[in-house]
From TrEMBL:
Gene Ontology annotations of biological process type: trehalose biosynthetic process
A GO term for molecular function: hexosyltransferase activity
Protein name: Trehalose-6-phosphate synthase
A Pfam match: Glyco_transf_20
Source organism superkingdom: Archaea
Family matches, as PANTHER family: BCDNA.GH08860 (PTHR10788:SF106), TREHALOSE-6-PHOSPHATE SYNTHASE (PTHR10788)
Organism: Halovivax cerinus
InterPro entries: Glyco_trans_20
Amino acid sequence: RDWETPLDSFDTLVVLSNRQPYRHTRDADGSLAVDRPTGGLTAALDPVCQRAGGTWIAWGDGDGDRQVVDENDRVDVPPTDPSYTLERVWIDDDLADTYYSGYSNRLLWPICHGAVDEAKIRPGDYDGYRRVNERFAERVVPHVSGESLIWVQDYHFALVPAMIRERVPPSTTIGQFWHVPWPKPETFSRVPQARALLDGLLGADVLSFHVRRFADRFLTCVEYFLDDASVDWDASVVSYDGSDTQVVAVPLGIDADEHARRSQNLDDGVYETLSAELSIPDGTLLGLGVDRLDYAKGIEERLEAIETLFERRPRWRESVTFVQTTTPSRTDIPAYAAYGKRVRRVVDRVNERFGTDSWQPIVYTESYLTRDQLTALYRNADCLLVTSLADGMNLVSKEFVAASVDETGVLCLSDQTGAHDALGDVANTIDPTDRESVWRTIDDALRMPVREQRVRMRTLRARTAERSLSWWMSTLFETFAAATPDRSISPQG
Ligand code: F6P
């Protein structure tokens, strides 16, 4: 489908996100280095902005970034072929601690992922969050002209839509995409500012989630917490404070063709070099995990299930190797630092228990992997393990499927991921809360005949290709265009 058309409905596109798509640093000799922060959100939106142009406003990382921007904090990206403008918002360390490490990731992240024991709020965290939301909302205003689309991303900016709404002309369309799960009302009620967050989000014309499950939980929370809002469940619209918010479920996809092409064209040498570097032995089956180091990903539970597998099924010893790559993240938050230690401890224990002179059951790395190296792992893996306890989407599962160009390999997928709603019944479903089910599913995957792998993988690949990144984009932009408000007449007439 063509996604130029719906984009053309708007004169200006402004995207807001916490994480930036490109980070600039200066090497010791003054030369410029550019890298791309990890994360599904930035990887997905960058190609969209490359096609659409416009401005992307995000938190700048530090001095490196400051040295490359103009007096308005702007730089054109991507560096090789600039097509849109990245505008940085600077946040000092104390404020970032309250907004990002505090309210966003000590409170909202665990609440949205149902990890209530990890949810903490410190004095000042909400105030910092509100101040940063305000700062971002203010930065949008100068960009608004004509029919503008302002597209706010994720849980870092729940208050922003209402803040923008107060500051821009009525012809402006505001969209918000919530990339993480939306919690059940009993969990959401633990947020002291529950009403303020709902009020902020309902400033948007369109609020999107990955899957219907999350959208419905949101509507339930609106009914539960906001007496003066009314929910039309059939139309999935909330009427509140004189305007409507359309609540939709549009699952984020990947550019499946691009992943398949990369995999198809990949030189075998990439895997040979990487497996030598990581000491992945030849001739064993390969189980793979690729995650940000986060308790919501169920990495510790997965490694424990692998331990049980080797205990109960000794036949797999020395004949399957599990590669776990993790990207450390949010390490100044105690829950993350503690989780990293626990994960490494399980790896050591399993390797000590079952390892031999020539084989380690778990090859664990926190090193940065290039896209080619990751593709090489996907292509060579016999099964991918996604055991998230809760996950908005999980694009790793889709990337694995797209890279499996020979149509073999087994996807073991937690039923708590958004990806499972889309791909579910042909994947090997894992119930991450049932420890028995995790190791048994891995066992089944390792024994699956190639013919059955092919049947399942073909369907997974077709679904991934159909609900691609461009499908996501056109569907959302059509929704934005359809929801574009006619506010020329005020509610009072
Ligand atoms: O929506 C989840 C998300 O914000 C994604 O961008 C990405 O998966 C991850 O969290 C990145 O986390 P952080 O920006 O805190 O490193």
